[in-house]
Amino acid sequence: MSNRRDFLKSASLLTAGGLLAGKAQAMPVSAMQAAPVTTANKALGLQIYSLFNELYDDLPKRLAELKDMGYINLELAGYNSGKIGQVDMMEFKKMAEDAGLKLVSSHVNPPGNSPQEFFLMNYTRDQLPRVKEFWKAAADDHAKLGCKYLLQPMMPTVKNHDDAALIGEFFNEAGKICKEAGLQYGYHDHNWEFKKVATEEQIKKAHPFMEPGDPIEDLFIANTDPSLVIFELDVYWTVRGGADPLEYMQKYPDRIRVLHIKDRAVLGQSGLLNFQNIFNQMYANGIQDYFVELEKMPDGRSQMVGIKECADYLQNAPFVK
Ligand code: MG
């Protein structure tokens, strides 16, 4: 009954989370306690980064275990020149499909200019041909994998509005290339995107107690073509950036089309997030796809244990359809 105990512990923290990250009242604890413990019957999504190298110690076995937990839709990480991690991408696809899993999405960054630069940080116009070439190859590969989304997860350097405008042009170009390959391009945030950058004019006019400027996330949204670029909101990093994921979903219902369902560690345990409000808004906005994500487990237990507990949380949550 440890799952049940953990679940109740999470449920009590959820109420506190309602004060921090959502406008509506959190579900009363009594209602959560009354929820039946269900078997795995919901189609959950998972960002495979959550498993680190544990995924690869026995890939077919791990994929089968994910299916047993209720994960059906995978978002890939670690794409590089036709491989996912160290595995040929088409072999990965076959193993996933054999396990009953779908490759729905993938996180990919344009590479940097040197081995030290893990991904391209400083966008300048002369980088555009190289970056377009990269997206063309990545889009063609992901079309072969049958993915629906190709998402850029890491933020390039943004010091001012001009940087954000130039990056918007790069995102639009990536969006066009992906669209031609039959994929939807998008951008995934961390916490840095909720920092503000300000023009001279905004600084001059600023209220003394208010931070002037615009959040970088809002500039990325404003500087990209809605027909080419969507946004995957990472609800945990949004909160860590000092913003409310619910407000963002309400403000940009047509732009935020995918979610990362994430907490500081196992879902529902930190009290930072009100997942009931987040799922309700997700359904109200018609968002179809979300992926659970887990950073390194803080208590030394395995990532597989952590994502099983995340799956149990969602399987038992009455607000998850
Ligand atoms: Mg994320």
CATH topology name: TIM Barrel
Q: Spans of 5+ residues with little confidence (pLDDT < 50)?
A: 1-38
Associated small molecules: magnesium ion
Q: What is the number of helical segments per DSSP (H or I, 4+ residues)?
A: 12
Judged by helices, strands and strand pairing, the structural class is alpha/beta
Order of helices and strands: HHEHEEEEHEHEHEEHEHEHHEHEH
What does the oligomeric state look like here? single chain
Task: Determine the N-to-C terminus distance.
Answer: 23 Å
Main sheet specs: 8 strands, parallel
CATH class: Alpha Beta
- Percent strand: 15-25%
Compute the number of structural domains.
1
Strand order of the largest sheet: 1-2-6-7-8-11-12-13
Mean pLDDT figure: 90
Provide the CATH superfamily: Divalent-metal-dependent TIM barrel enzymes
CATH architecture call: Alpha-Beta Barrel
If you had to describe this structure to a student in words, what would you say it looks like?
This protein is α/β, with parallel strands linked by helices and 321 residues long. The protein has one domain: TIM Barrel. The chain is built from 12 helices and 13 strands. An 8-stranded parallel beta sheet has the order 1-2-6-7-8-11-12-13. Strands 3-4-5 form a 3-stranded antiparallel beta sheet. Strands 9-10 form a two-stranded antiparallel sheet. The N terminus is likely disordered.
